[in-house]
Write a structure and sequence with these properties.
By secondary structure, this protein is mostly helical. The chain has 52 helices and 14 strands. The strands form 3 sheets. The protein has a 7-stranded mixed β-sheet. Strands 9-10-11-8-12 form a 5-stranded parallel β-sheet.
Length: 1077
C-alpha cells in the first residue's frame, strides 16, 4: 500500500510501499469520489514528477488537504494516483486489497461532484427541498463506491464545494432508502450475517467504467480473492466469481457432493413471520470452515421451532452442498426420513455403490450407515442436516424405552452442520437457543391476518385483544386464524369463546398441516405424557398451577399446605430440592421457564408458563374444577400475605396480586367454601393494602358473612373483619357506613376484651381517623388522646402502634393550625418509626410526607420539597408508581409547585396523580376529587377559567355525593368556586357559593375558625364590588375581629382585611376613619 503524506506546508509526497502492518501503524483517510475524464485526474506519474497541479482533479487533493488539517491526519489514499496502473500485478493486488484498506481507514471523505452546496437542519437531517440532489447523485450509482460506503467505520459526505452534509451515521435513514442497504450493515454489522444473495442485491443497478469491475468491486464484500483479468468480460468474470463463492461456501469439490435443494415431506408456512434475530444467531453459529457445528432450537411446543428451521434452510440453501431433513420423532419417522435422503442423493449421484444397493425396507441400519459414510467423506463438509421433533431424547432421568440417542443417526466425522428442534432443554449439543414467544404485537397480528385471510387487523380492536391474549404463540395465532377463516365469527366473539369454552373451541378448530396436523388441544399432551412417566409430582404441579396465575409461581408461595391438602402437595413442598426437581422437569420439556431472580432475601425465584398453556392446564388437565386444588391455591395465597411491619411486604404483596385475582375467581364455584373465611379476609387485606378498594370490599363481605354465620356477630374474629371494613369505608369516603362499623367494633371489643385492650385502643384510634377526615377535629383529638394514653401504658411509647397514634395527633394539630405541636408530634413519630421500622418503611415515609405538608403550609418550601422527594422515592421503590400512597405524595408535590408558581411542574404532578387515581380508585373517589380540585386551583391561577370551572364543579358534586354537603372538603371547593365566579364576573353564582361555604363552615368549624373568616372576608370583597357598602363593612369588621383574635394584629391575613376596610372607607369618603386604621 502506498500513501500520500502531507507536510506542514501542505506539500504531498508518496510514502514507500508499505506492508499491511506498516500501513496499520499510520492513521490515514481515504477519498471516495466519482471519476471525471481520465486525463482530468491526477495520476501516479503526476505525483512522482510533481506535475498535475493544473488539472481539474487536483482540486480533490486540495479538498483532502483541508479536511486532513481539520481532522489532524497526515496520510491519505486516493485511487486515482496511489496505484501504478501500468503495473498489472500492483493493480490486481490493489483491487483485491482495497476493501481491507478502506476498512482500516480512520475516515472516508465522500466527495459528491454533482451535489451543490447543501445546508443542514439541526441534528444533521438534510432539508427536504434540497435532499433530492443528494438522493440522485451519481456516487450512489457507481460500482466501486459500494465498498467505499460499507467498509469504512466513518464516512462523511461533502458537496462539490466541500461543505459537510453529514455522516453515514447521521444520514443512515436516507442512505439506506437510497441504496436499499439495511441500516445494520451501514452500522458495521458483520457482513457474514447477510447472505451472499443480499450482498449481491446491493450492487444491482450500479455501473462501472470497465465491465469487469461490476464483479471485481464485489470481491471485498464477499470476502473472495481471485485474479483480476481485464478483457475477460463481465459474464466470464461473473462465472468465475460464482465458482469461487460456491467453493468458499460448499468446498472445493462441492460438485462431487452437491444435491439439489428440496425438503420432501416438509410443509413450509407460506407467510413466515419475523424471527430475524434468531435467523441471524443461527447463521453466525453455523457458518464456519466445514467442521461440525450444532444449533439446538428448544422450547414450548407450538412456538415455531420447525418453521424457523425451514426458514433458515430456504434462506441459506445456496450456502450448503446439500440440505437434508430428518424427522426424529421415533424410529419409524427416522426410517422414512433416511429413505427420502437416499433418494435425494441417488438422483444426483446414482453411482454411490453402498446407497444404490441398500435395501430401504429391510435394514435401516445399513441405510443410516450408508448415508453417514457418504456425509463423512473427505471434502464433503458443507452439508446441513435438520433433525426435527427430537422431543424424546435419551437423557439422564428419562426411562422411556422409546427414547432416542440422536448421535447414533449422525455421521462420525466431525464435519457438516446440524440443526436440532426439540421441546427438551436437556439436549446439549453445540449452541442452544431457547425459542420464546413473539414479543412484537404486530407480528402476532400478521399471523392472524395471513391465516384468517382478513385484512387491516391493526384497526380491529377485537383482533388486537385476541393477539394480546394469545401472547405471541405462533400455533395459537395460526389456529385462531384458521378457525376464523372458516367461520363468520368476529375476533371479539372468538376471544369470548376462547376464555369461556376453551376445550370445546380447540376440539372444533382445524388441524394445521404446517404444524403436522396438531392443535393446541393435543400439542402439549405429548409433553404431559412424558412428564407423567418421569415425575408424577411435576404433572400434579401443572394441575395445581391452573388455579394460580400463569406468571411467577415460587416455592415459598406453595409452602403453606394444610392437613386437608393431598399428600403429594405436602411431599412436593416438603423440601426445596424436591420442588426444584419437579419444576426442572417442566422446564426441561419447555412448558415452564424460569423468571429473573426475585431480588428478595426471603423469596425465591419464580417460574412462569405461557398464557395458552395455562388455559390448557385448566381446560384439559382440570376438565372439571377441582375444589380441593382451588381451595389449596386460595389458602396458599392468603397464608402468604405479609403484614406491613414485615420486610419487603409491599413487594411480596405485589407479587401476590395476580395470584389473588386468579384464585379468588374460583370461589363462587367451590361447593363448600366455609373453611375459607379466614383466607377471604386475608385477600381483603392484600387488596386494601394495594389500593384495590372494590376487590377488598368483596373479600371482606364474603369473610364477614361466613364468620357471622359460623362464629357469631360479636365474636372477636368477626369484629376484626368489621374493623377492616370500617377502615376500608373511611378510605372510600363512605363516612356514615364507616362510623357505624367502628361503633359496632368498639362496643363489641369493650364488652369482650375490656377498655384497655390493644384492640379496643386501636378502635379508638380508628375513630379518631374517621372524625379527622370528617373535619370534626375536637372529636378526633379526644379519640386520639384516649388511644395514646392507653397505648403508652399497655405497649410503651416506642411501639409502632403508639407511634401511629402520635402521627395522627400531629395531623389533627396541623389541621388546627397548631404547627409547633404538630411538628413535635411528627418528629417524635419519625424518630420512633425510623428506629422501629427503618428509614424506608412506608409508615416512616407517611410521617415524612406529613412533615412535607406541614413545612409547605409554613412556607418552608425547601424543607417541604426535600421531604416530599424522600417520600416519593421511597414509596415508588416500595409500592410502585400507581399505589395511592405514592400518588398522594405526587399530588402534594403538585401543591408545593403551585405555591412556588412552578405551574408546568405542578400540572405535570397533578395529571400524573389524577391518571393514577382514576385507574386505582375511580373518578368519584375522594382522593381523585382532591387532585381534580387542586387542578382547578392551578387553572384558576393560570387564567384557564373554563377548565377550572369544569374541574371545580366535578369536585363539588363528587364531594357532596361522597362526603355530604357540610364536609370541609365540600365547603372548601364551594369557597374556591366562589372565587372563580368572581373572576368570571358571575356575581350571583359567586355569592351563592360563598354563602354555601359560610353556612357550612359556621356549622362544622364554628364562626371564628380561620376558614370561616376567609369566606367572611371574601364576601366583604364581593359586596364591596357590588356597591353593597353596609354588607361589605359588616363582613370586613367580623373578619378583622376574628383574625386579630385568632392570628394576631400583625398577621398578613389580618392586615389584608384592614386594607380592604380602608379602601371601603376611602370609597365612601370616610378619609379620617381610613387614615385611623
Amino acid at each position: 500500500m502506498r500513501l500520500l503524506k502531507r507536510n506542514h506546508a501542505d506539500n504531498i509526497s508518496f510514502t514507500k510501499d508499505l506492508s499491511d502492518l506498516e500501513a496499520a501503524q499510520r492513521k490515514y483517510a481515504i477519498l471516495s469520489h466519482t471519476w471525471g475524464l481520465e486525463e482530468e485526474e491526477v495520476t501516479f506519474d503526476d505525483i512522482v514528477n510533481g506535475t498535475g497541479t493544473d488539472k481539474p482533479g487536483y482540486s480533490k487533493i486540495q479538498f483532502c488537504l483541508r479536511q486532513m488539517r481539520r481532522d489532524g491526519l497526515d496520510y491519505i489514499w486516493l485511487d486515482t494516483c496511489c496505484i501504478d496502473k501500468r503495473n498489472s500485478a500492483e493493480l490486481s493486488k490493489s483491487l483485491i486489497s482495497m476493501y481491507r484498506w478502506y476498512s482500516n481507514a480512520e475516515k472516508c471523505y465522500a466527495l459528491l461532484s454533482d451535489v451543490p452546496q447543501l445546508l443542514r437542519e439541526h441534528g444533521g437531517e438534510l432539508r427536504t427541498n434540497l435532499e433530492r440532489d443528494f438522493r440522485l447523485c451519481r456516487w450512489f450509482k457507481r460500482g466501486w463506491t459500494l465498498q467505499e460506503l460499507i467498509a469504512p467505520s466513518v464516512v462523511e459526505f461533502f458537496s462539490w464545494q466541500g461543505i459537510s452534509l453529514g455522516t453515514k451515521t447521521s444520514l443512515e435513514r436516507q442512505v439506506s432508502e437510497i441504496t436499499h442497504i439495511p441500516v445494520a450493515a451501514l452500522r458495521g454489522q458483520a457482513l457474514s450475517d447477510f447472505t451472499v444473495h443480499e450482498r449481491l442485491q446491493w450492487q444491482e443497478g450500479r455501473e462501472t467504467r470497465e465491465p469487469e469491475d461490476v464483479v471485481y468491486s464485489l470481491l471485498g464484500l464477499l470476502d473472495i480473492s481471485m485474479p483480476v483479468l481485464y478483457g475477460e468480460g463481465r459474464l466470464k468474470a461473473r462465472d468465475r466469481l460464482q465458482s469461487e463463492i460456491q467453493s468458499a461456501q460448499k468446498g472445493i469439490r462441492h460438485k462431487d457432493f452437491s444435491v439439489n435443494f428440496s425438503l420432501p415431506g416438509v410443509i413450509k408456512t407460506p407467510n413466515f413471520v419475523a424471527r430475524e434475530q434468531e435467523l441471524q444467531e443461527m447463521r453466525s453459529n453455523l457458518i464456519g470452515d466445514g467442521s461440525r457445528r450444532y444449533v439446538v432450537l428448544h422450547g414450548l411446543g407450538g412456538m415455531g421451532k420447525t418453521q424457523l428451521a425451514i426458514a433458515y434452510a430456504v434462506r441459506h440453501a445456496h450456502d450448503y452442498s446439500a440440505v437434508f431433513w430428518l424427522n426424529v420423532k421415533d424410529l419409524d419417522s427416522i426410517k422414512l426420513s433416511f429413505a427420502r435422503i437416499v433418494k435425494q442423493i441417488l438422483r444426483e449421484h446414482p453411482s454411490i455403490p453402498r446407497l444404490a444397493n441398500s435395501n430401504l425396507e429391510s435394514n435401516v441400519d445399513d441405510v443410516v450407515d450408508g448415508v453417514n459414510d457418504w456425509l463423512s467423506m473427505p471434502m464433503n463438509s458443507r452439508w446441513l442436516t435438520i433433525c426435527d421433533n427430537y422431543d424424546n431424547p435419551k437423557v439422564p432421568g428419562n426411562s422411556d424405552l422409546a427414547a432416542l440417542d440422536l448421535c447414533q443417526f449422525l455421521p462420525d466425522a466431525y464435519q457438516g452442520s446440524v440443526i436440532v428442534t426439540t421441546r427438551s432443554s436437556e439436549v446439549k449439543l453445540g449452541h442452544c437457543m431457547r425459542m420464546s414467544k413473539l414479543e412484537n404485537l404486530q407480528d402476532g397480528l400478521r399471523i392472524l391476518e395471513h391465516s384468517s385471510g382478513r385484512k387491516n387487523l391493526v384497526d380491529d380492536r377485537g383482533a388486537v385483544q385476541l393477539a394480546k391474549k394469545l401472547d405471541g404463540l405462533p400455533l395459537a395465532l395460526a389456529t385462531a386464524g384458521a378457525y376464523l377463516s372458516q367461520s363468520t365469527f368476529t375476533f371479539t366473539e372468538y376471544l369470548d369463546f376462547f376464555e369461556r369454552s376453551w376445550a370445546k373451541l380447540q376440539k372444533r378448530s382445524p388441524t394445521l398441516i404446517t404444524y403436522e396436523n396438531r392443535t393446541l388441544f393435543s400439542t402439549w399432551q405429548i409433553s404431559m405424557e412424558q412428564i407423567e412417566r418421569r415425575n408424577s409430582f411435576s404433572a400434579n404441579l401443572l394441575r395445581l398451577w391452573a388455579y394460580f396465575d400463569n406468571q411467577d409461581l415460587w416455592f415459598e408461595l406453595l409452602n403453606h399446605h394444610t392437613a386437608e391438602d393431598p399428600e403429594w402437595i405436602r411431599e412436593l413442598v416438603g423440601d426445596k430440592l424436591d420442588f426444584q426437581d419437579s419444576i426442572q422437569v417442566l422446564c426441561d420439556h419447555g412448558l415452564v421457564e424460569a423468571n429473573a431472580a426475585s431480588g428478595l432475601e426471603t423469596e425465591s425465584q419464580g417460574y412462569s408458563v405461557h398464557a395458552c398453556v395455562h388455559s390448557w392446564m385448566l381446560a384439559v388437565l382440570n376438565a372439571k374444577q377441582d375444589d380441593g386444588l382451588a381451595g389449596a391455591a386460595i389458602h396458599c395465597v392468603a397464608s402468604h400475605v405479609p403484614m406491613q411491619d414485615s420486610s419487603d411486604w409491599s413487594l411480596v404483596q405485589r407479587r401476590l396480586l395476580k395470584h389473588a385475582n386468579r384464585c379468588s375467581s374460583f370461589l363462587d364455584n367451590i361447593g363448600d367454601a366455609s373453611g375459607l373465611d379466614w383466607a377471604c379476609h386475608m385477600l381483603g387485606v392484600l387488596y386494601a393494602d394495594q389500593g384495590k378498594m372494590a376487590e377488598a370490599e368483596v373479600m371482606y363481605m364474603r369473610a364477614l358473612k361466613g364468620r357471622e354465620k359460623t362464629l357469631g356477630v360479636d365474636h372477636t374474629t368477626t369484629l376484626d373483619t368489621v374493623n377492616s371494613l370500617a377502615i376500608l369505608y373511611v378510605g372510600q369516603g363512605r363516612i356514615t357506613e364507616a362510623e357505624e362499623m367502628h361503633r359496632r367494633v368498639l362496643r363489641g371489643r369493650e364488652t369482650a376484651l375490656g377498655l384497655h385492650h390493644m384492640s379496643t385502643l386501636q378502635t379508638l384510634n380508628n375513630l379518631g381517623i374517621l372524625y379527622s377526615d370528617q373535619g370534626e377535629i375536637a372529636k378526633a383529638e379526644e379519640m386520639y388522646i384516649q388511644a395514646l394514653r392507653g397505648k403508652e401504658r399497655v405497649l410503651g411509647p416506642g411501639h409502632t402502634s403508639t407511634l401511629n397514634t402520635v402521627n395522627n395527633i400531629g395531623i389533627v394539630y396541623a389541621n388546627q393550625g397548631r404547627t409547633r405541636e404538630a411538628e413535635a408530634m411528627y418528629m417524635r413519630a419519625l424518630r420512633g418509626r425510623e428506629l422501629a421500622a427503618g428509614l424506608d418503611h412506608t409508615s416512616t415515609l407517611q410521617t415524612v410526607n406529613n412533615l412535607g405538608t406541614l413545612f409547605a403550609n409554613q412556607g418552608r418550601m425547601v424543607e417541604a420539597e426535600e421531604m416530599y422527594n424522600r417520600a416519593l422515592e421511597g414509596y415508588t421503590k416500595a409500592l410502585g408508581l400507581e399505589h395511592t400512597s405514592t400518588l398522594q405524595t405526587i399530588n402534594n408535590l403538585g401543591n408545593l409547585y403551585t405555591n412556588q408558581k412552578k405551574t408546568l411542574k405542578a400540572e405535570e404532578m397533578y395529571m400524573q396523580a389524577l391518571q393514577g387515581y382514576k385507574k386505582a380508585l375511580g373518578l368519584d373517589h375522594t382522593s381523585t376529587l382532591d387532585t381534580i380540585n387542586n387542578l382547578a386551583i392551578l387553572y384558576t391561577d393560570q387564567g384557564r377559567m373554563v377548565e377550572a370551572e369544569k374541574m371545580y364543579i366535578h369536585a363539588l358534586k363528587g364531594y357532596e355525593k361522597a362526603l355530604g354537603p357540610d364536609h370541609t372538603y365540600t365547603l372548601n371547593t364551594a369557597h374556591n368556586l366562589g372565587i372563580l365566579y368572581v373572576y368570571q364576573g358571575k356575581i350571583t353564582e359567586a355569592e351563592d357559593m360563598y354563602m354555601h361555604a359560610l353556612r357550612g363552615r359556621e356549622k362544622v368549624l364554628g364562626p371564628d375558625d380561620i376558614s370561616t373568616l376567609n369566606t367572611v372576608n371574601n364576601l366583604g370583597i364581593l359586596y364591596a364590588h357590588q356597591g353593597k357598602v353596609v354588607e361589605a363593612e359588616e363582613m370586613y369588621t367580623r373578619a378583622l375581629k376574628g383574625r386579630e383574635r385568632a392570628l394576631g394584629p400583625d398577621h398578613t391575613s389580618t392586615l389584608n382585611t384592614l386594607y380592604n376596610i380602608s379602601l371601603l372607607y376611602i370609597g365612601q369618603g370616610r378619609l379620617e376613619e381610613a387614615e385611623g386604621l
